[in-house]
User: What shape does this take?
Amino acid sequence: MGLFIHNAKFKLDKNHHLNLPHFSVKPNQYWVIVGGNGSGKTVFSLALQNKLLLESGAYSNQFQQIQAFSFEKQRRILETILKNLNNDDTDPLYFGKKVLDIILNGSDNIKHCEEIANKLGIRALLDRFFIKLSTGELRKVLFAQALLNKPDLLILDEPFEGLDQQSVKDWMVLLDELKSNCAIILIVNRLSDIPKQATHLAMLDNLDLILQGERQKIEIQSIYQQLVYAEKAINVTLPESALPLQKLPQNHPHFELKNVVVKYGDNIILDHLNWTVNAKQNWWIKGPNGAGKSTLLSLITGDHPQAFSNEVKIFGKLRGSGETIWDIKQKIGYVNSQLHLDYRVNCAVLDVIISGFFDSIGVYQKVSDAIRLKAMHWLERLNLATLARIPFRSLSWGQQRLLLIARAMVKHPPVLILDEPFQGLDGLNRKLVKHFIEQLVNNSDTQLLFVSHQDQDAPNCITHLFEFVKENGQYSYIQSAL
Assistant: This one.
């Protein structure tokens, strides 16, 4: 019993194919698939599920219940909910499917659903709207959905992205337990994400499977050792801005939040929060999934409606005192999961970078040669210059995220807000982006507000820590200089 692929050629489009000379998965094996952004990891997952056209070769599967989840699946669900909500007849208090419905996905096995929710620590989310969850909570819900039908082959594409560190540890333990009843295929970007329990490794590059086999045999091969070394070596110079740099006043706090309360009905997200961000302070914001990190940042960017019912000062002005959201966004470069979801304009890759100069989604005005040239310089630094004219949505999730990070940085903004920016990035691109952040902040007046669950992702320019700490079911806010 198992899944077997031999001399297979899977069609992606008329110019691209996934080549798998041989690959097999047997019950109770624990595979980890590693590859850079755009290497073909997600399409490899689709091939295993028999969701790609097989042009030649053989595909055989005896597994009875294959379950998978990925960023792409998460995005499809969210986009469907948003589309269904986009009509005049929708109750303004209704936000689409609730978590229980998403997990059940047509099943009536509520008891098993509750058991899985308890195991993943999301029982309290079952009656919440799916679209209102944090990134980490969304991941947990989709994992629960995958587990509901008791899979004998479980395919997890970047499952740890967006999870806090404790949740990652808990999932590692759970996956180790699951492998006694099912085969596991874990797809990751970083070599450091390979769990010690994995029995087999495979590596993808440019839509080709270049390494595969038992873990101990793969880890001693020279190509694997070279990749481990390469993740530690990055030396790229940040392009300069094509526009005059904006300056912020240094004689008052850039952001002041006083006694802020954000709640939905009886659900309190932020409870009497006070936070002052002065000039030249670079903050790392951390805490468990669902603590309110993204909500906190959305009060600053102007994307949260309850910012206007609280005392929130941005660049010395009280929110709602006459400034427009564009006045604020001109001074801020940002990346978060909502922006990634909202960037649905299928413009060319180069236009995504250019749009960062105009704070727009897509490009709707004449672009100077200087800006176009600078955008190409960014693509060259990202090793994406050859993709300049292809559609943004045709890229892998990781490549899309890489472009959106560059979009946030192109104008060297006075404030750079990065909310879990590294989701979907492979090890080399994480190193590259971290290097860019450090260059920008250390060599300019750019101020950083940074969210990440992973300690190793925090840039060396961080000066202050804002941490959400949960005690007795309530969150407190710890602020300190580093």
Observations:
- DSSP finds 15 helices and 19 strands in the chain.
- The first helix runs from residue 41 to 48.
- The chain has a mean pLDDT of 90.
- The CA atoms of residues 21 and 79 lie 35 Å apart.
